Known about the structure:
Layout: E1 2-12, E2 18-22, E3 28-32, H1 38-53, E4 62-67, E5 72-76, E6 81-84, H2 90-104
Antiparallel strand pairs: 1-2, 1-4, 2-3, 4-5, 5-6
Amino acid sequence: PTVRSAELRFQDQADGGVVVLHGDARTPIARIEPGSHGFLRSTLRGLARERKRQSLGPELPYQLLARADGRLTLLDPATARRIDLESFGAPNAAVFADLLHRATAP
């Protein structure tokens, strides 16, 4: 079961950075600096590519889910594609865990 979740949007910036927005309010919760966090960037490129292939736009935010067993899943509700982040190692999953913490912190 899911114990915590957040809806997130990712907005590319002209300088190569990425702003992470809370899905509902579109409030910025983080900025990914240009050239950093390669795993996050490649994950998002793959999801965006699938949306484009299916002629879907960015309207729906992605869902980041923390499971009771400690797993993290990034879900694209537009395409039903899911990525089990812990499969790519703790350091890569930790980047997304930090975003989940920021998005759900009071």
